[in-house]
Amino acid sequence: MALLSNRPLISIPALHSSRINPRARISCFSTQSNSVEATELKSSRKEYSPGFIDDLFLNVFRSKMAQEIGWDSEKPGYDGLIDVAHRIMVGRSNSDATEAAIRILRSLFPPWLLELYKKLISPLAGGEVAALMVARVTTVSCQWLMGTCSVNYVELPNGSSWSSGVFVEKCKYLEESKCVGVCINTCKLPTQSFFKECMGVPLVMEPNFKDYSCQFKFGVLPPPPEDDAALKEPCLEVCPTANRRKQLNNTVELDVSKCPKA
Prior knowledge:
The chain is of the alpha+beta class and about 260 residues long. The chain is about 45% helix and about 10% strand. It has a four-stranded antiparallel sheet with strand order 1-2-4-3.
């Protein structure tokens, strides 16, 4: 749901093409369809080509993740980052994993900057200025993590609209992690909490587990957990953990109506 320097860097970490058969996400035992589906997803994604700054952000972010859990992967680059993201979920409850991810996000910023933003920027124009700013910074600084994304308009509860949305065409983090639980507990929930608690900007993230797109809505509060459809999602067919559970328990009727990690 990266350590080149001891100084924290300012970066904001947490997708539209062919759709996956919704019923396929409930079945967790077809290894052949897994490989076909994964191949189709990779080939259909509009690739973002990272540059030097993107590589710097990745290294710093991954190092902060590794520092938090006391472990790093031997794999290089983004593959290693995904390994570390999965490791965050090991031996922790969902809430503990979320809290760990929030600490990682906080460590990327100087504490004084977060406080100043929350006190000075967030109150301006009823929160609109802060929401528009973080939407634009997110698109500039986080495509290495999520893939191609752009600013769009989102509707607020009062019926007005702000250009404070970020639409991720096909989230690389979700696609590579292949796990609803990793998306929810190391990205969606901690990112929503981080922006609200640390920067004073409400945020709801709406991942689409069919096409791997994701809609950020800065300036909009998330729904209560019991009303958040993302928290009730079944495992993805490509989820390696779900497939291992199915293979080990092939004589047991498993409840796959909800991801066990979400």
